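Protocol step 4 of 6: record predicted structures for both targets in the notebook before any analysis. Target 1:
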Amino acid sequence: QVQLVESGGGSVQAGGSLRLSCAASEYTYCMGWFRQAPGQERERVATIYTNTEGKFYADSVKSRFTISRSRANVKNTAILQMNSLKPEDDAMYYCAAKIGGGSCDTSGRIDYWGKGTMVTIST
């Protein structure tokens, strides 16, 4: 059972920045972040693959968000730096991890989820 511990999130004005971090208790094939706004489906924001460092970004966040990994202290940590935040980024953000092969492209393929952290954008 992989444990995902999230940190970061909170409230910020439009145009501001936030940083999300997710530490996994063991190796993951890929990690990343999905988000879900009220009444909407959960959507992939950004994911990164451990072996290739391949990254994916949703079109809506390209050039504003950056995902990276840290293996300090033998923990697998995914970091999402979010800049130039917009009201449409307002959502609950969930850390996601997959331990087997395949793809992290949809929520149905994810093996483990974090509890979620709220990102609130004010105007």
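Target 2:
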Amino acid sequence: QVQLVESGGGLVQTGGSLRLSCVLSGRTFSTYSMGWFRQAPGKDREFVAAIGGSDGVTYSADSVKGRFTISRDNAKNTVYLQMNSLKPEDTAVYYCSAANLLRAVLGARGDYWGQGTQVTVSS
């Protein structure tokens, strides 16, 4: 059974930091590209960041460049999203996604999705 489980969300003040984690089980993690997406109330789900499985190449949305960093630890089957300098507009449910192909992750066509973790940034 394939599972993606996110953790690390919470309530933080503007300017604060959080680190999200997402563990993939049931598949060979190192062969999967991983991504983070977010959805704020009343808005569509949007891409945040992605990382390739084979080469670790990273991509991030312009809105988070310089503040958020995606990374992975293949030994722990885990992808991380380090979020610094958080803003109220970062408030959303954050979802983890996995796919064999990086372009599928980038296109929000992941094979697997987590249940989401809430991030709330207070002003």
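Step 5 preliminary note on target 2. The first strand starts at residue 3 and ends at 7. The mean pLDDT is 96.
Proceed to step 6 after PI sign-off.
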